[in-house]
Each structure stands twice: as C-alpha cells, then as structure tokens.
C-alpha cells in the first residue's frame, strides 16, 4: 500500500451525530442532508467526482455539495 487516507464527517455542534455505520445509512444521511460541505482539496474532488457516483446518489444529492476553499471544512461547519 502506498497510502491510506481517511475522509471525515462533521456536523454542527448541538446537532445529533448521524448514524453512518453502514453504506445504506451513510447514503441516507447524505440524501437527507440539506448541505454537504467538502474541501477544495483532493478529498473533496474525490467525493464530488467519484464517491457520489459510486454510491448511486443522483443529481439532487450532488446539488447539495458546497466547496469550502482554503479553510478546513470542520472549521467552516463549526
């Protein structure tokens, strides 16, 4: 293995922690989210160009994606 990279999920303080313990539950969380904030780095590009397609999430979910430039996404969400 050359590299192992994690992609994290954050929610606003005071909001319930979503259950993403399975792929089906993760897809449900993304489908029900009002906004999906992603980084302008490689992880955010991967989410937009690969992950949403791989999970068979349609254009409605893709429209919720907001790219956060030059700031850690967790900081922007907080």
Notes on the structure:
It is a single chain. Helices cover 41% and strands 10% of the residues. It is globular, with a radius of gyration of 13 Å. The protein has a two-stranded parallel ribbon with strand order 1-2. The longest helix is centred in the middle third of the chain and has 13 residues, at 42-54. It is α+β, with helices and mostly antiparallel strands. The N and C termini lie far apart (34 Å). The protein has helices at 23-32, 42-54, 59-62, 73-77, and strands at 36-39, 65-68. The chain has a domain at 23-73. The mean pLDDT is 90.
Write a concise keyword list for the protein shown above.
78 residues; alpha+beta; single chain; globular; 4 helices; two-stranded parallel ribbon
Topology:
Layout: H1 23-32, E1 36-39, H2 42-54, H3 59-62, E2 65-68, H4 73-77
Parallel strand pairs: 1-2
Biggest sheet descriptor: 2 strands, parallel
Structural class: alpha+beta
Physical arrangement of strands within the biggest beta sheet = 1-2
Please tell me the overall pLDDT.
90
Label the overall shape: globular
Fraction of residues in helix: 40-55%
User: What proportion of the residues form beta strands (DSSP E)?
Assistant: 5-15%
Rg is: 13 Å
Instruction: State the low-pLDDT regions, or none.
Output: none
What is the count of DSSP helices, taking H or I runs of 4+ residues? 4
First CA to last CA: what distance?
34 Å
Sequence of secondary-structure elements? HEHHEH
Total E-strand runs: 2
